[in-house]
């Protein structure tokens, strides 16, 4: 892979440039660890300075020149040095020569690794910094001794000194995208960020190694890392340079921490010599993290652990793992994760003999949604004699790891162990779940209903019926799903998990019907009892999130969506490869980004969801539908059409409950192709279907899509008692009185304003949408208002246009019919001149570039101002962004 494009670090880059160019600029030295990005940052800032009127010289100190007088500045000093000068005379001559070459420009000296400068060069740098119209920029490695003249630069208040922090998660994400050319899915970004600790050099080496060993896979334009780390020799060398040669006692400390981090400080002292622990900390190999009264020890850098674990002989690694397990068991498994850690150490050391320990640990790992680890522990529990319980746990985990066929095999192998009705009930629910969602067998619903009738214990029957209810909900048998769920709640013997599943089914159905308040209460009730059902049924969290996410999306509650995608479950699902959970939450993230107008983020996130769910039969269709929405809104019609086709292929009849989202996406894409009549027909059919199903919550959104297409007057539904059908505006007004939340009322206002052709009312509606961060709806309403006000020759048209420009500044690329169709047409020449003017070119320069007169340019610009309702160049660009691209634009 080639050189990375410079991304991120905008604040640091601006600070360096300002330090060199601002009046009274003091210069700046940046310190940081090796590989954190200091050199690249300095080089990037120096590249910008010549265009800003600076005379720039750069040098890179190194160990080879550290003992040669002026060796560090050999690249800066003029070649024609007079002979016979003393060191002091050489410095005075060098400063004068630099000023002569600068010819009045500001002198900027950039020095990389200034801590390696020889004494003479360091003194010359100090002298340059003290001279008039000159400044110094430089980098230093943290922890290295700094020459006294360089240190004096900031102690004498000649320059500033700052520490360069590691890359943030967002900067790591941006850097990975720049290197690979396409986005990387969020879990992979998180793992690579943690393993590199935000160090750009280490990140680069990790990516190169992963790419070379095919550990990076690309699906739907998104890269995904397997998580395996076959470190290249270059990384070994980098880590060796930091760790160095270790004494036997210190190596024992580092290896024990590598195998068991985080490990309690007291345990580490018990297992090793305290003096070796102190040496390891002094050398920066380990770090002690104190929280409340607990002190844990970790390696100073995550890659140290990778290298140490890989180099540790197998026999020693097994011995250390067993030693760690013995240590923790000796003091008792008091911390929440101790049981899990002991089980893993026993497994790694080959001393795992207790299936009960492995079974409990596997259940704990699954409750934390760490699917690979849970599967490993459950498999080991089954192999060591865990019996039916281990098989049930393993099959459940395999289902959520997209290994449904294996799960069925595991379950069928233990049918002879169904010695009680309780076991049979649990076996029925797990096998039904695998068969229905994993293998897409619709006959499962009838089979599980028949099996439930044979159960005599009320609690066992309630568990199976709760599963039957949620399956019937997903296949759109809503009335039966509601009846069954209520019957579960009516059974006092039903477990907390069964009742929670039934309440999630009801909450989902209530949200679809527009009963958002009741749905929210039900979801909150299930969430409040999580501690009671998580050990028994951790995957209930997914049903909870689906019901909650549906309610929030229908309510347009973007803040609520932000809250759940930032909650603990989202982090656990991403980190633990719980794909159904992380995939669904990515779809929610994409929906929120799209409604805010951040279509680039929406497309990127939905592509990530498609990649995560590529082998899933549950939410894959929904992920592609959301990708289609984002692509269509960005004007990428071909990608949007392809995404709809992929959605149709991936969607299964077992997830029929999701059809409103898929059909809305289909209509959006139809409109993006220019077939507005086809889009209107699709939405009208969707409204009719939603009315038949009683999904008033979804109907509000479908009706509003018709308003956005300018069809608030369209007649829909069956004729009323008067013999006429309701218009979209009338139906929305009716629904606003029965569907909960502020959004239906606002959308009804939008419909009435559109129906009445009222620009003033449309502006008021736009303001209300903007307060909810629904920027796309706000911009569309404002765009309509601009058209209405212009047609009425209202004095408010200019104000409306400025508001439209402000709303579009909040958005990424947005190409919806409401923002495209209503824009006044510009000729190709007007558009060309307007674009150049918006980019800051003077009329004279535009005229020279287009070979026309300046007067012609001014005349064209005045016509553009009149058509767009703007007063000057500063208002042009946001309006131009909202207009469609012509097929052949000379300036495109």
UniProtKB/TrEMBL annotation:
Alphabetized UniProt keyword annotations: ATP-binding, Nucleotide-binding
Entry superkingdom: Bacteria
Record SUPFAM superfamilies: C-terminal effector domain of the bipartite response regulators (SSF46894), P-loop containing nucleoside triphosphate hydrolases (SSF52540)
Domain HTH luxR-type: 819-884
The UniProt record lists the keyword Nucleotide-binding: yes
Keyword Hydrolase: no
UniProt cross-references to Pfam families, sorted A to Z: AAA_16, GerE
InterPro entries: AAA_16, P-loop_NTPase, Sig_transdc_resp-reg_C-effctor, Tscrpt_reg_LuxR_C, WH-like_DNA-bd_sf
Name of protein: LuxR C-terminal-related transcriptional regulator
């Amino acid at each position: 892979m080639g050189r990375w494009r410079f991304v991120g670090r905008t604040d640091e880059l601006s600070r360096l440039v300002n330090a060199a160019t601002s009046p009274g600029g003091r210069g700046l030295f940046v310190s940081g660890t090796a590989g954190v990005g200091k050199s690249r940052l300095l080089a990037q800032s120096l590249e910008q300075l010549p265009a800003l009127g600076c005379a720039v010289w750069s040098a890179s100190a190194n160990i080879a020149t550290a003992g040669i007088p002026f060796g560090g500045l050999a690249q800066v000093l003029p070649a024609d040095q007079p002979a016979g000068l003393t060191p002091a005379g050489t410095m005075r001559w060098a400063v004068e020569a630099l000023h002569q070459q600068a010819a009045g420009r500001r002198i900027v000296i950039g020095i990389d690794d200034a801590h390696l400068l020889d004494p003479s060069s360091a003194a010359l740098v100090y002298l340059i910094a003290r001279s008039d119209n000159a400044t110094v920029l430089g980098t230093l490695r943290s922890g290295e001794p700094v020459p006294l003249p360089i240190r004096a630069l900031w102690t004498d208040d000649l320059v500033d000194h700052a520490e360069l922090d590691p890359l943030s998660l967002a900067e790591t994400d941006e850097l990975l995208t720049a290197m690979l050319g396409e986005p990387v899915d969020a879990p992979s970004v998180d793992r690579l960020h943690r393993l590199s600790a935000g160090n750009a050099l280490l990140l680069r080496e990790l990516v190169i190694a992963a790419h070379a060993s095919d550990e990076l896979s690309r699906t739907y334009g998104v890269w995904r890392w397997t998580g395996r780390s076959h470190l290249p020799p270059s990384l070994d060398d980098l880590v060796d340079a930091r760790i160095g040669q270790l004494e036997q006692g210190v190596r024992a400390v580092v290896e024990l921490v590598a195998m068991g981090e985080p490990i309690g400080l007291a345990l580490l002292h018990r297992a090793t010599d305290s003096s070796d622990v102190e040496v390891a900390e002094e050398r920066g190999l380990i770090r002690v993290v104190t929280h409340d009264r607990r002190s844990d020890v970790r390696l100073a850098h995550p890659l140290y652990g990778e290298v140490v674990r890989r180099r540790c002989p197998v026999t020693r690694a097994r011995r250390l793992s067993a030693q760690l397990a013995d240590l923790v068991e000796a003091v008792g498994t008091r911390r929440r994760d101790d049981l899990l850690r002991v089980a893993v150490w026993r497994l790694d050391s080959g001393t795992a003999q207790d299936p009960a320990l492995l079974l409990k640990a596997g259940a704990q790992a699954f409750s934390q949604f760490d699917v690979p680890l849970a599967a490993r522990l459950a498999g080991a529990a089954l192999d060591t004699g865990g019996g039916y319980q281990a098989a049930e746990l393993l099959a459940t985990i395999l289902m959520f790891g997209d290994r449904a066929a294996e799960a069925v095999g595991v379950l069928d192998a233990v049918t002879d162990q169904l010695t009680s009705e309780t076991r049979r009930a649990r076996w029925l629910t797990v096998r039904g779940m695998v068969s229905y969602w994993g293998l897409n067998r619709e006959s499962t619903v009838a089979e599980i209903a028949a099996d439930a009738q044979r159960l005599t214990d009320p609690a066992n029957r309630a568990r199976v019926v709760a599963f039957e209810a949620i399956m019937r909900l997903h296949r759109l048998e809503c009335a039966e799903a509601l009846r069954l769920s209520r019957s579960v709640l009516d059974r006092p013997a039903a477990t907390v998990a069964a009742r929670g599943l039934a309440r999630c089914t009801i909450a989902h159905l209530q949200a679809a019907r527009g009963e958002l308040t009741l749905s929210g209460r039900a979801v909150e009730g299930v969430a409040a009892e999580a501690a009671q059902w998580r050990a028994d049924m951790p995957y209930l969290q997914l049903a909870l999130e689906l019901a909650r996410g549906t309610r929030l999306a229908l309510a347009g509650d973007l803040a609520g969506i932000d809250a759940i995608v930032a909650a603990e479950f989202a982090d656990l699902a991403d980190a633990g490869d719980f794909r159904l959970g992380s995939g669904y939450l990515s779809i929610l993230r994409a929906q929120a980004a799209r409604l805010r107008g951040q279509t680039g983020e929406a497309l990127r996130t939905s592509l990530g969801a498609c990649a995560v769910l590529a082998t899933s039969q549950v939410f894959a269709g929904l992920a592609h539908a959301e990708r289609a929405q984002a692509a269509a809104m960005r004007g990428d019609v071909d990608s949007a059409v392809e995404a709809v086709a992929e959605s149709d292929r991936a969607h299964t009849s077992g997830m029929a409950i999701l059809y409103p989202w898929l059909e809305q996406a289909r209509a959006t894409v139809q409109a993006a192709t220019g077939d507005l009549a086809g889009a209107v027909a699709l939405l009208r059919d969707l409204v009719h279907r939603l009315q038949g199903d009683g999904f008033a919550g979804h109907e509000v959104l479908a009706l509003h899509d018709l308003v956005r297409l300018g069809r608030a007057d369209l007649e829909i539904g069956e004729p009323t008692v008067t013999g006429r059908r309701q218009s979209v505006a009338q139906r929305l007004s009716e629904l606003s009185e029965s569907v909960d939340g502020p959004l239906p009322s606002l959308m009804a206002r939008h419909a009435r304003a559109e129906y009445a052709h009222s620009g003033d009312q449309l502006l008021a509606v736009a303001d209300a949408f903007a307060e909810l961060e629904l920027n796309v709806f706000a911009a569309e309403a404002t765009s309509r208002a601009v058209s209405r006000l212009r047609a009425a020759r209202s004095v408010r048209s200019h104000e409306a246009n400025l508001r439209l420009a402000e709303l579009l500044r909040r958005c990424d690329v947005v190409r919806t019919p409401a923002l495209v169709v209503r824009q006044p047409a510009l000729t190709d020449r007007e558009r060309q001149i307007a674009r150049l003017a918006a980019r800051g070119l003077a009329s004279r320069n535009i005229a020279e570039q287009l070979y026309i007169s300046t007067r012609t340019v001014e005349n064209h610009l005045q016509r553009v101002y009149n058509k767009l309702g703007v007063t000057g160049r500063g208002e042009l660009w946001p309006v131009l962004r909202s207009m469609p691209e012509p097929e052949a634009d000379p300036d495109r």
